[in-house]
# Entry
Amino acid sequence: MRKDLEEELREQAHPNRLKEYPLQESEDLCQMNQNNNQIIRFEEITKVYHLGRIDIPVLNGVSCEIKKAEHVAIMGPSGSGKTTMLNIIGCLDKASSGRYFFENRDISSFDDDALSEVRSRKIGFIFQSYNLIPQLTVLENIEMPLFYQQVDEIKTREKAIELARMVGLEDRIRHRPAELSGGQQQRVAIARALMNDPVLILADEPTGNLDSVSGKEIMKLLCDLNERGTTLIVVTHDVNVAKYSRRILKMLDGRISNED
# Structure
């Protein structure tokens, strides 16, 4: 069989694999197979902010791996670098040096547009302050992630209603954020984070503004999502919130100082 015909048949059998992962040395392919269960890998990640002539190091050579469907908590005192680490994971910020692999793809050198594409299609965000748009209804807030993706409006509306039902807000879809409790607003934020079917959810102090009862309800909802296969990374000061995770990364002075 001619070599070019043989290669064409192989590509037809595995088109996506050959386009995304060109043939490499055997040891590289072996490494790729070993890492195919990873969603996040940091290799000596640093982050330095520049304020005039002053350099402020925030991350100092962070290396870690997070597997698909894991539930990981990141803890540490204020200024330890945990939120900066979350921002880099979420493609909201770029590392100063080091390599960042997302789903086995090195995205360290991606420009802002490429990072935005990863962020909008792969990652959902949940913030302590909810970050809802006050002028919009619950339903409209949930729909926002697909607003700029030219998704069919009817399908978007149907999905938003389904997610509102899933988080227990089907009777509040016409309300605005000011008409909701803190726990209800965070439920809207969770539904919004799920609109793009993310493989990864990043939650920054998701229970920080909630009472203990509402906080437990939100963590149960997040744990249920994780049990369905969504990778969950939570930044928290709260030991009780961290206990919901299967793994805890403890940060100090811009490094991972310990792991439970």
Remarks:
- The longest helix spans residues 212-227.
- The radius of gyration is 20 Å.
